[in-house]
Structure to design on (157 residues):
């Protein structure tokens, strides 16, 4: 009865690298096999194998975040106007986006509120005095808001 098998062996020997491939063990008659082996190149000790380590490409520098003050539209009211104002930071149809904006505004040290307007969920700052608008614009700019709307309290958008 014959036994057929194919084997590959790679051996690392301290004096160098030797690749030994044993293949085609075939039986002949009474379970005695004939073995053929191929021997690879042995490197002398004076020439150790060179390791090639690929360095990953460095990640590009992130774009700098524009931290300039938020543009208040239609404009910052004069301090002598008096009264209080409402600043709309954003209006969102996707609740998760509104929550993310709300969290950013809080991160800026402000106290936002949600305001429902039809299908939109607004993130607003209420009871803002005219003299506070510039400082709020700076804080909003530092957390990434580019524009915001302002209106007097009680006015419609």
């Amino acid at each position: 009865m014959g036994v057929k098998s194919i084997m590959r062996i790679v051996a690392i020997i301290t004096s160098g690298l030797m690749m030994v491939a044993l293949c085609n063990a075939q039986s002949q008659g009474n379970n005695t096999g004939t073995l053929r082996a191929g021997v690879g190149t042995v490197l002398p000790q004076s020439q150790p194998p060179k390791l090639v380590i690929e360095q990953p490409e460095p990640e590009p520098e992130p774009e700098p975040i524009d931290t300039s003050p938020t543009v208040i539209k239609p404009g910052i009211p004069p301090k002598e106007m008096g009264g209080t104002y409402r600043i709309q930071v954003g209006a969102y149809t996707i609740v998760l986006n509104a929550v993310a904006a709300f969290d950013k505004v809080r991160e800026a040290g402000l106290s936002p509120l949600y305001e429902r307007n039809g299908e939109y969920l607004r993130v607003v700052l209420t009871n803002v005095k005219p003299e506070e608008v510039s400082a709020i614009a700076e804080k909003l700019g530092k957390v990434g808001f580019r524009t915001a709307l302002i209106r007097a309290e009680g006015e419609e958008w």
Remarks:
- The chain has two helices and nine strands.
- The first helix runs from residue 95 to 107.
- Confidence is low (pLDDT under 50) at residues 1-38.
